[in-house]
Amino acid sequence: MFIRTLIILIGIWMLWQIFQGYKASLENEAENQTKQKKQNQAMPEKQHMLPCAFCGMHIPEQEAIHRGDKVYCCQEHRLADENQR
Ligand SMILES: [Zn+2]
């Protein structure tokens, strides 16, 4: 009789542990999602977009190719713009 009670108690304890772990993972996920949302919202403000001098496409400043006072989206457009003159 005592052993059966013990087994039931262990079973309840294990279920409780699983439930706690599940709850913690759900909370972590929700926290990560809100963090990601905040990051996504902050991104467009931080990124300075520049238009390509050749095709006019807007590209983030870090990815842009700077040549003098002009900015290009890729090496091909930089060369194409230079060859035009
Ligand atoms: Zn371009």
Automatic annotation (TrEMBL):
The lineage of its organism: Bacteria, Pseudomonadati, Pseudomonadota, Gammaproteobacteria, Thiotrichales. NCBIfam families: PP0621_fam. It comes from Candidatus Venteria ishoeyi. This is TRASH domain-containing protein. InterPro entries: PP0621-like (IPR049708).
